[in-house]
Amino acid sequence: VRVVACRLLCLCEGSQPSEETIQRLILMSMKTGKGCIDLGKADLADEFLEMAVGSIEKLYAKFLQGRDGEADTSVHRTDVEKNLFKVLSYQAESAVAQGHFQKAVTCLQRCKEMLIKLPKETCYLAILCYNFGVENYERKRYEQSSFWLSQSYDIGKMDMKYSVGKEMQAKVLRLLATAYFEWDCSLHLDKALRAISLANQEDLHPAGFFLKVKILLKGGASDEDISSALAEFLHHEMSLDFCLNTAKLLLEYGRESVGLEFLKSVPERFASSPDVGKITLLHVEFLLQNSRELLAKQKVEEIIIGHYSGKQLLPEALNQLHIILWDRAAKHYEAKSYSAALQWYSYSASFYTPGQIDHNLGRLQRNIATCHLHLQQLDKAKEAVKEAERCDPDSIFTKFSVYKIAVMEKDTDKAVEAVIEMGKLVEKPSQHEDKLRVDENTGTNLLSLAAQIALENQQQVVAIKALEHLAEHLQDCQQLFAALKCLVRLVLSQLTAEDEEKRLGNGFVLLRSCCLYFELCFFAAHKRLAASFTEEKFTGDMRILEAHWFRKVAWNLAVQSKGCPEHMRDFFLLSFKLSQFCPSDKAVLIAQKTCLVMAAAIELDTGRQQATPSEQMQLFTQALEHLQACKEIWKVLKLTGDFARDPTDTLLLLYEFEARAKLNDPTLHNLMESVWDQPQTEAKTLEIIASLAMEPPARYPVLCKKALKAALNLHRKQSVVDAVKLRLVLSHTALSCPLP
Questions:
Q1: Cis peptide leading into 697, omega within 30 of 0?
Q2: 8-40 b/e with 16+ CB inside 10 Å = b?
Q3: Is 246 helix (H, G, I), strand (E, B) or coil?
Q4: How many whole angstroms separate alpha carbon 358 and alpha carbon 660?
Q5: Residues contacting 526, CB < 8 A, separation 6+
Q6: What is the rounded distance in angstroms from the CA atom of residue 60 to the CA atom of residue 643?
Q7: Crossing angle (nearest 10°) for helices 540-560 and 477-496
Q8: CA 488, CA 521: separation in Å to the nearest integer?
Q9: Is residue 695 part of a domain?
Q10: Per-residue DSSP letters for 442-499?
């Protein structure tokens, strides 16, 4: 709205605008320009600021005329100069925003020249230059930032009556020193030190002392110079946090001797402060960082003595001490210095009272137990684990510690129980667990480690149980299949070692319980293969390799399950399902066909032996479904080569006939029509069909007779007639058609 109004006023002013119109235009264009700058539209602001300058010049001309008595003398020179000063400062602000450094400098110089007549604007201009310095500092334009900050400081000194004050001057100088420091400390070290020294002279502030020490450290000053700088502010009142930050700075730059001396002098100043323990902690950190572990231990032992003599650390400081102790212990543990790690963990344990229940104490006891285990101190490890169970019984890490002890003691039952508890906690973590440390990946990693430990200790039963729970919770496909394969191999190795007396039937038959177990493993593999298409990391080649491995093992298990027809069928079907994830080459198609034929054969054979009609119908229906799928595969397979001598057509015909006959399928006659039309059908096949047509619950005497007659005709056509076989066929024909 201001932009539009300002432009409209320009159109209305005419060739000889009045003083009032010019003053209104100056005010409107100044406000519009400043508003555009504040909105980040500096380029648009320039238009209106130039307009303001032009109007000021017109007003100034009228003022000169008025001095000769030819114009209205109410126009005051001071007002004109103030407006011009403001416009020039706005132009400088716009130029800085657009990165026009030289233009901004020119505007600033004109403003500085006008300060002689407008001394009250000194503070405004000094702060404006400071803001320019801050803006360029944030953009990492250190050279320009240092220029503006120097200008701010110089302007602040021009008129002490209207100065920004010592605190502001010190603030400007501290930022100027920081700009020199970050620009190039080695090149501008003297300038940075001069600026910070002036700042400290203007106003004593902890930030100034701190920055001076930092500049000296960065510039590689001697220990004497740094000690001298530290001594300067030790005579002034400084906060504890400031002293701590200074000590940390010395620690960061590796000034050991200066830092230690400084830390020794600080506690006396804050002896009555409840936070004095922070200094002690920093002292310990300083000693550890400088490899003075023996002195650090002495300091920690002093803290422990003080803890039990009424000089306890505040809770926050005590927590920080535990972190320091655990961190040092962890470093020794990683270096396999288990005795040293145990000592640092023991320091941490010293701050807990007997009988205290704390989840962190549970973690601590688990770490102590692990160190004892590495040192072959089983009894002490057991004591630590008992303490961990008391303090943190629902932690998966505690259960894992119990598990490790049980495995080392060869207590299979207890180890299995611990694994089961770990599996439950993976599924539903304890509400007290550290969420940053315990997630499902952590749980599965622990189960994986549990299986590895069991195998290393020759405890296959425990390893199997750990792998079972691991397979239930793994999300990564590659890890899951690795676990399942390991599980299958383990169980197979156990079966191989079984005594012959424990097997069913003969030495080639698997135990029924293991068959069920394997089926669960293969079902899990099939389910995950089906779901793996959405996982980018699990490629198609990986999927095919895994499918081949599992289908082949399922096939071998089916072949070995001769004493368990039901499991044999299930393994053949699993092998078929798994093979569907493999490319349909000739070898895979043959395997698929064989799996389905075998499954159908087993279902038909089992159906013959079932007592109830409903069970028979179910098995015959399943067999028919598998035969239909097999026929489709067989059609494709026959296109890949010569299968003239393959008996698959005959088997499929006989199995399908039996299934449909015993299901009383109305399409049975349609099936047989295709048989009568096939001249290559053998007599033996027709004889079997005739037999199946009358095998209960099937009863098809007409089909039986027709099949026998066809078989009889085939026998008669033979060059050498088998009299015995001919008599049998004739007798079967007569029996199939008894006299009324």
A1: yes
A2: ebbeeeeeebebebbbbbbebbbebbbbbbeee
A3: helix
A4: 72
A5: 550, 574, 577, 578
A6: 113
A7: 20
A8: 8
A9: yes
A10: HHHHHHHHHHHHHHHTT-HHHHHHHHHHHHHH---HHHHHHHHHHHHHHHHHHHHTS-
Let me know: does 671 contact 634? Beta carbons within 8 Å: no
Give the span between the Cα atoms of 201 and 213, in whole angstroms: 15
Asked whether the bond before 17 is cis by omega within 30 degrees of 0, the reply is: no
CA-nearest of 670, 736, 673 to 705 is: 736
Residues 6+ apart with CB under 8 A from 483: 448, 451, 467, 470, 471, 474
For residue 393, CA distances in Å to 358, 421, 536 come to 11, 11, 39
> Is residue 725 domain-resident?
yes
Q: Is residue 98 one of the residues assigned to a domain?
A: no
Exposed/middle/buried for residue 390 (C-beta within 10 Å: 0-12, 13-18, 19+): middle
Residue whose token pair is 């499902």: 440
The residue with tokens 């066809």 is 710
Of 206, 246, 240, 207, which Cα lies nearest the Cα of 226? 246
Q: Are 199 and 161 in contact (CB under 8 A)?
A: no
Report yes or no: 599 and 555 within 8 Å, Cβ to Cβ. no
* Torsion sign over Cα 161, 163, 168, 171: negative
Residue with tokens 């005709």: 713
The identity of residue 579, as a single letter, is S
524 Cβ contact list (under 8 Å, min separation 6): 471, 480, 484
Query: Please, is 309 exposed, middle or buried when counting C-beta atoms within 10 Å of its C-beta (0-12, 13-18, 19+)?
Result: exposed
Q: Is the Cα torsion angle 635, 637, 640, 641 positive or negative in sign?
A: negative
CB of 449 closer than 8 Å to CB of 443:
no
Give the span between the Cα atoms of 347 and 326, in whole angstroms: 9
Between CA 30 and CA 59 the distance in angstroms is 15
DSSP structural state of residue 313: P
pLDDT confidence of residue 517? 58
Q: Phi/psi zone of residue 459: left (φ > 0), alpha (ψ -120 to 50 degrees), beta?
A: beta
Q: Could you tell me how far CA 525 lies from the centroid of its own chain?
A: 25
Coarse DSSP helix, strand, coil percentages of the chain, rounded to the nearest 5 percent = 75, 0, 25
Dmax over Cα atoms in the chain, in whole Å?
157
Q: And the tokens for 519? A: 């089926």
Angle at 224 between CA 218 and CA 228, to 5 degrees: 90
CB under 8 Å to 205, separation ≥6 — which residues? 170, 174, 199
pLDDT one-digit tens code per residue, 334-357: 999 999 999 999 999 999 988 888
Domain coverage including residue 675: 666-739
Written as one letter, the residue type at 733 is T
Calculate Rg over the CA atoms of the chain.
48
- Among 213, 294, 284, which Cα is nearest to 255's? 213
Q: Which long-range contacts (CB under 8 A, 24 or more apart) does 514-517 make?
A: 515/557, 515/561, 515/564, 515/567, 515/570, 515/571, 516/567, 517/491
Question: 46: closest CA among 1, 8, 91, 89?
Answer: 91
Number of domains, the chain: 1
CA dist 519 and 697 (Å) reads 32
Q: Name residues of the chain where pLDDT drops below 70.
A: 13-15, 18, 60, 62-76, 268, 271-272, 429-440, 495-521, 523, 528, 530-538, 611, 677, 679, 719-740
Q: Is residue 295 part of a domain?
A: no
Q: Which of 487, 479, 577, 485 is nearest to 537 (CA)?
A: 479
Instruction: Please say whether the beta carbons of 490 and 460 come within 8 A.
Output: yes
